[in-house]
Automatic annotation (TrEMBL), chain A:
A single GO BP: jasmonic acid mediated signaling pathway
Domain SKP1 component dimerisation as annotated: residue spans: 136-182
Matches recorded under SUPFAM superfamilies: POZ domain, Skp1 dimerisation domain-like
Similarity comment: Belongs to the SKP1 family.
Role this protein plays: Involved in ubiquitination and subsequent proteasomal degradation of target proteins. Together with CUL1, RBX1 and a F-box protein, it forms a SCF E3 ubiquitin ligase complex. The functional specificity of this complex depends on the type of F-box protein. In the SCF complex, it serves as an adapter that links the F-box protein to CUL1.
Quaternary structure and partners: Part of a SCF (SKP1-cullin-F-box) protein ligase complex.
PANTHER family associated with the record: SKP1
Originating species: Digitaria exilis
Swiss-Prot/TrEMBL keywords: Ubl conjugation pathway
All residue ranges annotated as the SKP1 component POZ domain in the record: 23-84
Lineage, highest ranks first: Eukaryota, Viridiplantae, Streptophyta, Embryophyta, Tracheophyta
Chain residue ranges for the region called Disordered: 1-21
Name of the protein this chain belongs to: SKP1-like protein
TrEMBL record, chain B:
Pfam families registered for this protein in UniProt: F-box
SUPFAM superfamilies referenced in this protein's UniProt entry, alphabetically: F-box domain
Domain F-box: 30-66
PANTHER family reported in the protein's UniProt record: OS02G0188900 PROTEIN (PTHR34223:SF26), OS11G0201299 PROTEIN (PTHR34223)
Domain of life: Eukaryota
Xref: InterPro entries: F-box-like_dom_sf, F-box_dom, F-box_SCFL_complex_component
Species: Digitaria exilis
Gene3D superfamilies cross-referenced by the UniProt entry: 1.20.1280.50
UniProt-recorded name of the protein: F-box domain-containing protein
Lineage: Eukaryota, Viridiplantae, Streptophyta, Embryophyta, Tracheophyta
């Protein structure tokens, strides 16, 4: 504020007005509009944080052409739920950068949040979280995928995810030989 | 590498997720490699490697995961005896790390085990130290090590390398000997978070220019005599609860100008009030301070000692106590005296004399 007081005033006022809005409007690929708290969006999504900081947020709905309305609804829902769940160590985490904390197991509400999703909705959300740079949501959804694999045999995993086995019998045998140290008891 | 699912077709399908019956498309193979690696890196190491047989897309994914979970438990019961599956586990992790692609590692979690009845825990810790060194050389950011029922002997030399990028370390059931803390300071120059649980610690002279969070939990045991020294100008959050041979003295704090929250436990010993006064004087911007008194139920010389201590406090009264940011002081007493404990009382008086309002002090 100290510098350039005169000529930047109009610009400054506009920016202040923009900053005063505490929500941003996002538009899905199929044209539906969603509102989300600006604070939560900036905190949870590096892409939205960049857009907010860079002033490229559109008041009439910022186009997110890669994300369908169902996935975007889940993204917004996640942001709102996250904003409502007060972190236990709020005081500490506010002063310490998020990256230094190791992966934290999904919290109860996060677990419920991903558990209720259909198979396709889960993958849509993974892709949306990846696109928006939402590290925590990406971890929580990726963790869910790993849980769907955990303790299952390769055949069971193929079935859950509909993975087509495109190896020949000989190739599979070759792999098992090559990595015998990982398959000793099968 | 061929992909059984065409990614473009998948992207098309994802736009209309509800129309495609679940199970008809292979959504997981349509994920980008980075995202897929992130998902499977949550698996434990053995199951992770075994994903290579799923399809050609998966053949070499395990070699590039950003997170490794090496867990001894995953091998539990895979062979006849404890020694036998210990060999399987070590052989597995050695191969795994050797055949891994040289890509940066984000997180390394190790759950180790030294067999019961080990004659040489130092030698039996060697593999773990090699693996941790490997992780550090792979630019790992986050390390978690769980030592097992016989404490893993962590080799301080592992942390002396100048090129550690580790920012967070959580060590459980680990034996730490000098110069562990010194090597952390010189080697791990971006370490911000250090959490020690149930560790055995030799002489903690802890100094750092980068640590922000330091926790030494109540199951840690200090084998040294005397007093720990902590000198960390960057530290924001300190939890110091170790048990010790010497009545768990309050640590001597130096250069702690960033400290915001602190909680610590202390036992009863002759130097208690001196230590505490010194402790309080070394705090500047603290807003949340928790004392956890772990003394015996009745302390025979309490009255006598108290007089000495009061004298000491009076003697030092002209020194200023500068905790103007302190908003709440919680005192937890485990003994039956509670707030009538003369020791607690002298502490309350001391705090009040230094501008802490009685309403800001709670005694439990």
């Amino acid at each position: 504020m100290e510098v350039d007081k005169g000529k930047g005033e109009a610009e400054e006022t506009r920016k202040v007005a923009e900053a005063d809005r505490d929500t941003v409007t996002l538009k899905s690929s199929d044209g539906k509009l969603f509102e989300v708290s600006k604070e939560a969006a900036a905190r949870l999504s590096t892409v939205l944080a960049g857009m907010i900081a860079g002033g490229s947020i559109d008041d009439n709905g910022t186009d997110l052409k890669q994300i369908g309305s169902e996935a975007l609804e889940n993204v917004v829902d996640y942001c709102n739920k996250h904003a409502n769940s007060i972190p236990s160590a709020a005081l500490i985490s506010s002063s310490i950068s998020f990256n230094t904390a190791p992966f934290k197991e999904p919290e109860e509400w996060e677990r419920k949040f991903v558990d209720r999703l259909s198979h396709d909705a889960l993958f849509d959300l993974v892709e949306a979280a990846n696109f928006l740079g939402m590290e925590r949501l990406l971890d929580v959804t990726c963790h869910k995928i790993s849980e769907m694999m955990k303790g299952k045999s390769p055949d069971q995993i193929r079935e859950v995810f509909n993975i087509k086995n495109d190896y020949t019998k000989e190739e599979l045998e070759e792999i098992r030989q090559e990595l015998a140290w990982a398959f000793y008891d099968d | 590498m061929k992909r059984p699912c065409d990614p473009d077709a998948m992207a098309e399908a994802s736009r209309d997720a509800r129309v495609v019956p679940s199970g008809a498309a292979c959504r997981i193979n349509a994920l980008s490699t980075d995202v897929l690696l992130r998902a499977i890196s949550f698996l434990e190491a053995r199951q992770l490697v075994q994903t290579c047989v799923l399809s050609r897309r998966w053949r070499n994914l395990w070699r590039s995961v950003p997170r490794i979970n090496a867990s001894h438990d995953e091998f539990d019961g895979k062979a006849g005896t404890e020694i036998a599956y210990d060999v399987l586990f070590k052989n597995f992790i050695n191969r795994f790390l050797m055949l891994r692609n040289p890509v940066a590692l984000h997180e390394f979690r190790l759950q180790y085990n030294i067999p019961d009845g080990s004659n040489d825990p130092v030698a039996d810790s060697r593999d773990a130290n090699l693996w941790i060194r490997h992780a550090l050389q792979s630019n790992v950011r986050l390390i978690e090590v769980f030592g097992g029922s016989i404490d893993l002997h962590l080799d301080p030399a592992v942390f002396a390398s100048k090129f550690c990028f580790v920012t967070s370390m959580l060590l459980t059931l680990v034996f730490l000997e000098p110069p562990f803390f010194k090597n952390l300071r010189t080697g791990c120059t971006v370490l911000e978070r250090l959490v020690l649980r149930s560790c055995i610690i030799y002489h903690p002279e802890i100094s750092s220019h980068t640590l922000k969070v330091l926790t030494i939990d109540a199951n840690c045991y200090c084998t040294f005599e005397g007093r720990a020294t902590i000198s960390i100008p960057s530290l924001i959050d300190l939890h110091f609860f170790p048990d010790g041979a010497d009545g768990a003295r309050i640590p001597l704090l130096k250069n702690m100008e960033s400290l915001v929250t602190a909680s610590f436990a202390f036992g009863t010993n002759d130097d208690l009030v001196d230590d505490m006064c010194q402790f309080l004087w070394s705090l500047h911007g603290i807003t949340d301070l928790e004392f956890n008194y772990r003394g015996p139920q009745s302390y025979p010389n309490l009255e006598d000692n108290l007089e000495d201590r009061s004298f000491t406090c009076e003697h030092l009264e002209d020194r200023s106590f500068t905790c103007e940011h302190l908003v709440m002081v919680k005192i937890f007493c485990l003994d039956t005296y509670g707030e009538y404990d003369p020791l607690v009382n002298s502490l309350v008086v001391f705090l009040s004399d230094n501008g802490i309002n009685p309403g800001q002090i709670s005694i439990n």
